[in-house]
Design goal:
Layout: E1 5-7, E2 22-26, H1 40-59, E3 73-74, E4 81-91, E5 98-102, E6 110-118, E7 126-130, E8 132-140, H2 145-164, E9 176-182, E10 189-190, E11 202-203, H3 204-215, H4 234-237, E12 239-240, E13 243-244, H5 247-252, E14 272-274, E15 281-283, E16 289-290, H6 300-308, H7 331-340, H8 350-355, E17 373-376, E18 381-382, E19 387-389, E20 391-392
Parallel strand pairs: 1-17, 2-6, 6-9, 10-11
Antiparallel strand pairs: 3-4, 4-5, 4-8, 7-9, 8-19, 12-13, 14-15, 16-17, 18-20
Length: 394
Amino acid sequence: MKRFLLRAAALAVTASPAAAVNVVIDYTYDTGGFFSPQSADGAAARSTVEAAASFFSEVLEDSLSPIETPPPFQSAIFDGQAEWRWSASVNHPSTGALLELPDLTIAADEFRIFVGARGISGSTIGLGGPGGFGWSFTPSGGFTSDEIALLNATNDAFGAAVELRGQPVGEFAAWGGALTFDNNPGTPWHFDHTTDPGPGKNDLFSVALHELAHALGIGLTTPAALVGTEPPTVWETLTSGSAFIGASAIAANGGTPPMLNADRDHWAAGTVSTVYGGFASQEAALDPDLLEGGRKFFTTLDAAALADLGWEVADGSPLPGDYNLDQVVDAADYTVWRDALGTPAPIGSYSGWAANYGASRSPAATTPEPGSIVFGLLAAVLLGVFRGRPGVFC
């Protein structure tokens, strides 16, 4: 069975109005047209990547600070002048070259992902991860005491927005990142998330879920060249040897720390959890493997890892009475309950269905298909400017 190595990727789309985080795909640097809406595959790829990203927009309830460069400041009394600058950095998703984006405006709650494609050597079929940043404050001349206080307040707020997005110190934060898919002719993609992937196909939807989770901080480790010069990532602070020791993940794993692979950037191969928002068992989306022709969904353990990184994750417990797991309690669930009566595995209870009839929840996942790909994680240095943090292209 053919297997492919994936390097952590990232993706996104505009969220529904009820979601706090708005994961946004930006096609500006899709210079090769992988996501071109003029082609059937490109249109399907857009729809699928956006469907995967909208899942995260639905379940992440954080409020993210906007990032906008303050206007230059001129003293009203003295000759003082001050200006601020910031720069986002990612690898160009269609060329791999370092891409600096000066004074990018990021809206409140936005998590922006630049996407594209290029031929990737070897068996790697995806690249991506969170971007880097740098920011500066340059004052000169004289200011009044009130102006100095205003400058300090503006500078503190701007720096916190760039570095933390309004999140507490010690939690994962980023403005967004970038995603590249392999466009070599021999890479057999299944682009349509509304149909089952065929034999031998790499399911874009499954890859998108897995890789966006890396962009959100899961498995993010310090590049080897920067070990000792950069502080450990939030993910690294939650690892101990080959175990992940985040409290939410331990609880989701039955009270036992989930084990990691050798590189400590994924769950150990074969790690099993339940589909987020449902009952079905499945290999975790963030374990290293996905079978060709199969599809994986996010699991309770994967969501718990996001919570440990500091994300506010919506309740993923099954909706009471929702026996067909479509996130709506209706007559179809009664049919599932009735048909299971007298079988070795009866489902729920009539009273549980009746008490919750009419309840609904935004869909988070559906029952998975059998899953064929190998996921990996590659870190490359993106140098920030001024005061900042290098990005990781995974």
